[in-house]
Write a structure and sequence with these properties.
This protein is of the alpha+beta class. Helix content is 31%, strand content 27%.
Length: 89
């Protein structure tokens, strides 16, 4: 498997498989050692499945799942937030 390199300053972009173009993650930070010296082309990324799971938990899954209705998802989100507020969470 080959994928694109993570270069310092690319945080917030995307990581795709080189051969297929499949989105596999989002760069989150570059690796730094000592007094701020960065290690070229080495970084950490958040796997895209983790992003999808978080979006689903927060009821923002309509962003990537076109079968979901934005208004309905956000209504569910608001109801859950209101329920948590009423419980004092």
């Amino acid at each position: 498997m080959s994928c694109s390199q993570i270069i310092y300053g690319n945080s917030g972009g995307a990581i795709f498989l080189a051969k297929t173009g499949e989105l596999i993650g989002i760069p989150s930070r570059g690796v730094v050692v000592g007094w701020g010296t960065s290690i070229p082309h080495m970084g950490l990324f958040i796997p895209i499945i983790r992003v999808y799971n978080w979006l689903a938990e927060q009821h923002y899954d309509f962003i990537y799942d076109l079968s979901k209705d934005e208004v309905k998802c956000l209504e569910v989100r608001e109801k859950e937030l209101e329920a948590k507020k009423n419980k004092g969470e």
